[in-house]
Amino acid sequence: MIHSYWRHNLNGLSMNLNQTDYHLGYSCPERSVSTALYVLSYVSTAAVVLLTVCGNLLIIISVCHFTQLHTPTNMLILSLAVSDCLLGVYVIPTALIWMIESCWIFGGLYRICFTLTSYFLTGMSIFNIALIAVDRYFALSKPFLYNKTVSPRTMCSVLLSIWILLFLYNIALQYFNGGFVSYDGPEDYFLVLNQVWYLIDLFLIFVIPLSVIIILYVQVFFIAKKHATAIRELNSHTRTQTSKNMSDSMKSERKAAKVLGILVSVFLACLLPYFVYTQLGNVEKDSFQKLLMLVYLNSSINPVIYALFYPWFRRAVKLIFTLQILNTDSVVKCICISPPRTFSTETRNYAVTGH
């Protein structure tokens, strides 16, 4: 997922850009790199875009096609994959071409669409990660209430509302800051926010979601440790089917929390260096672009994380590549995963009373 906080660092960056970039007769400078390096840059760009788009498309197809994967948590993963895929289709190639060419070679209308799309998908990626943190905390801390109240349909309704509201917010953000006015020259590639909108955007899109992510995953870590202790006690003192079901369920939730914790950790590792650097005020263009590249790679890394840690994803991909999804029964075809666990009354009593 891409988190391009260009709107937050315009002043620092513009101070270090060559002043010849800011006149009406501007044209892109001649290339200062060799032809081989220039071609290699575009080949690398194509590879990053291909990995991002294809990897996230596999996630989208897997979750949408196989009914066994229709769980609340997977709806969040699906939403994240959609935003990452759209970034790979449109935002990443545009931004990387801008980096390679060292100037904006597209028109003013394209710039407006690009700015709106990048801000919108950036915010959606961050909100997806925050919702994953909320989902894991809720599932671990209140498993019975979670199973009772959270369904795939409920999660889809929440996600659809956030997609719509965030899109409307970004339209308002650009409209009230002159983002829909087309200018000549590369300088209007950035959207200049006034102080009020800057603070609103900073807290709404970054500070609040990041705080939620960090606080809840710290809580998830401690809950997972308690569950590990409880599992050991269950295994050492009882051998009933009820205790086995309880132990398996707790292990499943802990594993899900661990994998999604890795997802969040990679997300923070890619985002924080860029965000911290761009808030320092004295931003160098070269450093800015390198850190931005690190941010872009996050959208490509997410499918790799799923492939490494989610057996269901690997099996789903195998069915896709072998074209078995074309079979009429492939929608319910077993991919060797367990459906979301539900606790029986007996298990619930054991969890509450300990016997």
UniProtKB/TrEMBL annotation:
Keywords: Cell membrane, Disulfide bond, G-protein coupled receptor, Glycoprotein, Membrane, Receptor, Transducer, Transmembrane, Transmembrane helix. It is found in: Cell membrane. The chain crosses the membrane at residues 39-64, 76-97, 109-134, 155-176, 196-224, 256-276, 291-313. One of its GO terms (molecular function) is trace-amine receptor activity. The keyword Transmembrane applies. The keyword Disulfide bond applies. This is G-protein coupled receptors family 1 profile domain-containing protein. Gene3D superfamilies: Rhodopsin 7-helix transmembrane proteins (1.20.1070.10). It is a multi-pass membrane protein. Residues 55-306 form the G-protein coupled receptors family 1 profile domain. GO terms for cellular component: plasma membrane. Belongs to the G-protein coupled receptor 1 family.
